[in-house]
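User: For my dataset I need records formatted as: sequence, then structure tokens, nothing else. Please produce one.
Assistant:
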Amino acid sequence: MKKNIIKTHPLPLIIPRMIIGLIFLSEGIQKFVTPETVGPGRFAKIGFQNPEFWAALVGLVEIICGVLLLIGLLSRLASVFLLIIMAVAFITTKIPILSEKGFWSFAHEYRTDFAMTLLLIMLLYFGGGNYSVDKYITDSGE
């Protein structure tokens, strides 16, 4: 069972892991460094009840999962948590743009999130790759 969760494939997945890991690590840190624009202030503007709690929780998950992806540990599990964050962000911030401003404004605003979502799906499917702690664990456990 453990082997199936962290088993990885031989694709060069270090680049997508670095991209996603660094973006989420940065975004998580920013929720604490600039709380009025990215943290609780942003969550309150979107309409979250108890924005301080949600901003801190999301920030911590982004930091932890970002670091996990950077080292390639539990890459699939980290991808699941980050995909949940991406889905909530899509529903709360991008769908209103689509309904209020139309498709092209939505497409412009969603371009980075779309790329990150696809990279997370790729990591969910393939795992951390050859240059990951996941690979080391599965190779040494056989």
